TrEMBL record:
The keyword Coiled coil applies. Residues 600-755 form the DUF7605 domain. InterPro entries: DUF7605 (IPR056024), P-loop_NTPase (IPR027417). Keywords: Coiled coil, Hydrolase. One of its GO terms (molecular function) is hydrolase activity. This is P-loop containing nucleoside triphosphate hydrolase. SUPFAM superfamilies: P-loop containing nucleoside triphosphate hydrolases. Residues 397-424 form a coiled coil. It comes from Septoria linicola.
């Protein structure tokens, strides 16, 4: 529904759908700009008063337990370790990064959506048409604590080794585009070069090395690259590497790893980044200008904003399917860090694109509310368009149209009366009618907006429901995927303010931006709530018990007799971890790898049929062009082709099913490990209590410490198991999606390279012509390489097996470290309490006495106000 009549916004008038035709209610003054700060605060864990109680409580406890050590003159290795541990666990806690990755096609509205979410203007770069090609990954995060400028950007360049790989890749692309698409045998020669790739590579060199004569223009750059004798011509590469080194040294000032830019406004900052984030065009000659974008890995924007202040980082990367060396490398590098995903797509693509479905499916496996679908430009609708809807909806649309027509008629009649008054010279009445006409024009706009807004809402609801149903079938989640139909353009009009006659078609709320922002603001809730629970239940109690051990130091003459129980778990925990991981590894092998291995024959048959279809659809030159472009063609008369992608798609659905069923075994694996480790700690406690020395020494502080400290073990196990789940998701992605590190993509790379070399050539080294001719020989060889036993498909199941083994080995080592740290702390705590020497230093005695008093206060605060606040927080958000 449109924004209100005159200065009122539609929230004030929308309650009455049958608003009376009362011109007195129409205000002709300009509607002021909309302020996002007026919105209802998001339902965020960190914005509650309970969270503040927990934060302040942590600070209070730190002061209580560290204060006595700060004031005391008694310092030992033990006291220093206690203070350092407190500062590490409570003052500098590790918090999970919330990285929201926004993905979508170029020109789809990613930047516009980001800018709508921010309160600080257009921080994300937009082109003249409201879109901009993302040349490198952009990360938007909160301002640094010491940051003085409102806006700061850090430009990260690729390391030297990667820059050299990029340059070598560009030379290879250019050489293949120049020499790899023609065949002496069919007389095509150089006629079938790929000018688009050559132009792209030439543009890259001009952007980077315009100062050198060889690269002052694309023509000169092409001439320079045409001198290459091979795709890895050493002379040219050495020159490119030398230019690269000088360029980076000059730009960064020597040893700096980043370039830092600051500004007082977003526009000023974006202008400074032109030489790093855009393909610059010189105004004088229209040629490519100097820009370092081909070497830029990441641009990180830092500024103050309500969303980023919640700990949310937004990530905008180039498309993973982009074939540009820089953009593809940047996307692959940073996409893996995302915890949540916003998919910006038009309704048709979101409904039918398998990439959207796969992304939604993978992210939903990590937990609820991990993915959002955004449909931009939802405000565009034709005057005659009637979307699907109920009979009631369509009847209301008709009624609203009639109201609009009545308003138009009233305005026309008023204009006629005004013209008549002017003819008769009645200026006073003409002025009255003129004001009335201006109000009627506003009324016409309002009724027209109501009618359009109603039809837009009908279409949006229909589109959202269709997409939700489609994704529900694919993700099998209990909660539907959130879908938002947004209008960034109309939202910006509200931000700018407007005259009543230019009232936007949709209200602020109907643009869906406030709702989308509120949902995204809840993304950190799960992580922050778990962090609060870990601190309240485990970290702080464990820390206080360890301090209590220090105050309860008890000399024990036969310390070694009891210490053996504390040492026993240290030789057993690794065996328990291995005993849990080995069966899990075997289960994954039996449920994923073995079925993939038995699928080889069937996959080869499907791949052979696919190869034959490619042969029929692509004649000599198109087929060779495909091979030279790693099996990829964007479109054109022959249609889009992605050979590696099609090969992946042959069994992607089945592979996903195997992973889903195998992951179900994960819960029992986690449970069995936790039970055995818990039994190990429980046995230690039992042995200590049953030892004959137990009655002669007060071990209760140590036993209390053990009972509290052992809660760190489940936390460590769950964290590791979560990483295993995420690792398995990544392996599934490599087996089912078209990414640079996909198993099929990596396996096919040498096939494309080898087949591309099969051509007649020239000179003394000219190869003998095959009986079937070079074109058919290439197709035959390609099919043989793709469909051979122990070939492409073997790379899939061996890659899966290798990655699963590596993942579990890494997590086994991580568990050995984290769980081992707990049992080692048992030993160090026992040593600290059961010191064989009586405390005689008066300074240490005074320290212990003060600490005892403070520990009592700390425990009271932890179990009182902090516990109450945590329970309320858990009840509200869990």
């Amino acid at each position: 529904m449109a924004t209100g009549i005159g200065r009122k916004r539609d929230a004030d008038i929308a309650k009455d759908d049958a608003l009376p035709f009362d011109l007195d209610k129409i205000d002709l003054r300009k509607v002021p700009p909309y302020g996002p700060k007026s919105e209802q605060a998001p339902r965020s864990v960190t914005m509650t008063k309970e969270w503040q109680v927990l934060e302040e409580g942590r600070g209070l406890i730190v002061g209580l337990v560290v204060g006595p050590f700060t004031r005391s003159e008694h310092h030992t290795k033990v006291t220093d370790e206690l203070v350092e541990r407190t500062q590490r666990d409570l003052l500098d806690p590790k918090r999970e990064d919330i990285v929201v990755c926004i993905s979508g096609n170029m020109g789809g509205g990613k930047s516009a959506t980001l800018n709508s979410l921010f309160e600080n203007g257009s921080v994300a770069r937009e082109g003249d048409s409201g879109s901009s090609c993302t040349l490198a990954s952009n990360r938007f995060t909160k301002a640094q604590s010491e940051q003085k400028s409102p806006y700061l950007a850090e430009v990260f360049l690729f390391p030297v080794a990667e820059r050299r790989e990029i340059l070598a890749g560009y030379l290879r692309d250019y050489f293949r585009a120049s020499h790899g698409t023609g065949d002496e045998e069919d007389g095509s020669g150089q006629a079938n070069t790929n000018p688009a790739i050559k132009d792209e590579v030439a543009g890259v060199l001009v952007a980077l090395f315009k100062e050198y004569p060889q690269c002052r223009s694309k023509k000169e750059a092409r001439h320079f690259l045409d001198g290459a004798d091979s795709e890895d011509d050493l002379e040219i590469l050495v020159k490119l590497f030398d230019w690269d080194e000088k360029l980076v040294k000059r730009t960064t000032g020597g040893g700096a790893k980043t370039i830092t830019l600051t500004a007082s406004t977003p526009g000023e900052l974006i202008a400074q980044l032109d030489g790093f984030a855009t393909e610059v065009v010189d105004e004088d000659d229209g040629c490519t200008g100097a820009s370092m974008w081909p070497f830029v890995s990441l641009i990180e924007f830092r500024f103050h904003d309500p969303t980023t202040s919640l700990g949310i980082t937004f990530l905008d990367t180039p498309g993973l399917s982009d074939h540009n060396q820089t953009r593809r490398r940047s996307a692959n590098k940073y996409c893996k860090t995302k915890t949540h995903s916003i998919i910006v797509s038009d309704a048709a693509r979101a409904k039918d694109d398998p990439m959207v479905a796969n992304e939604a499916k993978l992210m939903s496996q990590r937990g609820p509310d991990r993915v959002v679908i955004v449909l931009p430009k939802s405000d565009i609708i034709g005057d005659a368009t009637m979307p699907p809807g109920t009979r009631k909806d369509k009847q209301k649309a008709k009624e609203l149209r009639n109201q609009c027509q009545a308003a138009v008629k009233a305005a026309e009649q008023c204009e006629e009366r005004m013209a008549k008054c002017e003819e008769e010279g009645d200026e006073d009445q003409a002025m009255v009618l003129n004001k009335q006409k201006r109000k009627l024009d506003v009324w016409v706009k309002y009724t027209d907006n109501r009618e359009k807004a109603h039809r837009i809402r009908m279409r949006s609801e229909s589109s959202k429901e269709t997409i939700r149903e489609k994704l529900q079938d694919l993700t099998h989640t209990t909660r539907p995927t959130p879908v938002f139909a947004v209008s960034n353009k109309l939202y910006n009009q509200h931000l700018a303010g407007f005259s009543p006659k230019d009232t936007p078609v949709l209200s602020v709320d109907e643009t869906a931006i406030p709702d989308l922002r509120r949902l995204i603001s809840t993304f950190p809730n799960e992580a922050r709530l778990n962090e609060a629970r870990h601190h309240q239940i485990t970290v702080i109690p464990s820390l206080l018990k360890r301090f209590a051990l220090y105050t309860a130091r008890t000399p024990l003459e036969r310390k070694s007799d009891m210490e053996k129980y504390v040492l026993r778990p240290l030789v057993k925990y690794e065996e328990i971890i291995k005993g849990a991981i080995d069966p899990f590894a075997m289960a994954l092998k039996e449920r994923i790898v073995d079925p993939l291995r038995t699928e080889e024959s069937s996959w080869i048959q499907s791949a052979r049929a696919l190869c034959e279809r490619w042969e029929d659809a692509n004649k000599t030159t198109p087929f060779l062009q495909l091979i030279n472009r790693d099996g990829h063609r964007r479109g054109g008369k022959s249609g889009a082709v992605n050979m590696s992608g099609d090969l992946i798609a042959l069994r992607s659905k089945k592979i996903s099913g195997l992973f889903e069923r195998a992951v179900q075994y994960h819960n029992s694996f986690e449970k069995s490990m936790l039970e055995e480790l818990d039994d190990l700690a429980a046995d230690m406690l039992t042995d200590l209590r049953e030892d004959p020395n137990y009655g002669f020494v007060d071990l209760e502080p140590f036993l209390d410490y053990i009972n509290t400290e052992k809660t760190r073990i489940p936390h460590a196990v769950r964290q590791s198991c979560q990483r295993i789940l995420e690792g398995l998701e990544n392996i599934q992605r490599k087996a089912t999606l078209i990414d640079e590190d996909a198993y099929v993509v990596e396996a096919m790379a040498p096939v494309y390279k080898d087949v591309a070399l099969l051509k007649a050539g020239k000179g003394p080294n000219k190869l003998p012509r095959p009986k079937c001719g070079w074109p058919q020989h290439r197709k035959n060889t390609f099919k043989q390489q793709v469909t051979r036993i122990d070939g492409i498909w073997a790379m899939v199941y061996t890659g899966v097996q290798s990655d699963v083994v590596a993942l579990l080995q890494t997590e086994q080592a991580a568990l050995n470290h984290s769980v081992g740290a707990v049992f080692k702390d048992f030993q160090s705590g026992f040593d600290m309490m059961c010191d064989t020497k009586v405390v005689s230093d008066p300074k240490e005695k005074a320290l212990q006495e003060e600490l005892k008093v403070n520990l009592k206060q700390a425990e009271q605060h932890l179990n009182g106000p902090m516990r109450k606040a945590f329970d309320a927080l858990w009840k509200e958000f869990h």
